[in-house]
Design brief:
alpha/beta; 6-stranded mixed beta sheet; 178 residues; binds guanosine-5'-monophosphate; binds magnesium ion
Length: 178
């Protein structure tokens, strides 16, 4: 792994693809135990979680389903541009065990909004799995059940995570080099 440049910013190697896969195996085996017999519905949050969701889900062995949701800015009047509506949900989650798959939980504002919207559909329980977690930035109460890596408040890219839309294709994770 070597230093890279994306658009105007420099990044240095941070977490290798091999390390990511090792952590995913650990999380998957815990989930397989916890979810046994629960017929869970996995929910990947687009775009950032697509690689993580794919690699994690390949290691899930319990009968289950997966779907993908996206956050879209509210249209029309009253929009602050900050509140985001979760699109792609339907009634099928009523009384289900739902496993949210996120790329990164930073302040937790996004996750909090996702959970509040999901609760309206009355799932039986909500489990949160994220690839990256920034505990020092986290301001919310909801428990992050599983994370592959906890990191300081530095900006990272790769393995689904982007800088201005670029860098999602990187197999390894990089951190900004300032
Ligand atoms: P939160 O709402 O938890 O503050 O932020 C979550 C969102 O911010 C993530 O879904 C992601 O889009 C973005 N984000 C936060 N930290 C990073 C980071 O280090 N790298 C990238 N690429 N996105 C981040
Ligand atoms: Mg995200």
């Amino acid at each position: 792994m070597e230093n890279i440049k994306i658009l105007d910013k420099a990044f240095k190697p941070y977490i290798s693809a091999a390390k990511i896969q090792t952590k995913i195996s650990v999380i998957a085996s815990k989930l397989n135990k916890q979810l046994d017999g629960k017929d869970p519905l996995f929910m990947g949050i687009l775009n950032g979680s697509f690689m993580f969701a794919s690699d994690l889900y390949k290691q899930i062995t319990v009968p289950s389903q997966i779907t993908f949701l996206k956050l879209a800015s509210y249209q029309g009047t009253g929009s602050t541009g900050k509140v985001k509506r979760l699109i792609g949900i339907n009634e099928d989650i009523k009384n289900k065990t739902v496993v949210i798959i996120e790329d990164i939980v930073d302040t937790g504002v996004t996750l909090d909004s996702i959970i509040k919207q999901l609760r309206g559909y009355e799932p039986k329980e909500i489990i949160v799995v994220t690839l990256m977690f920034k505990p020092k930035a986290y301001t919310k109460e909801f428990k992050v059940d599983y994370f592959a890596f906890d990191i300081p408040n530095d900006f990272i890219v790769g393995y689904g995570l982007d800088y201005d839309g670029y860098g999602r294709n990187l197999a390894d994770i990089y951190v900004i080099n300032e």
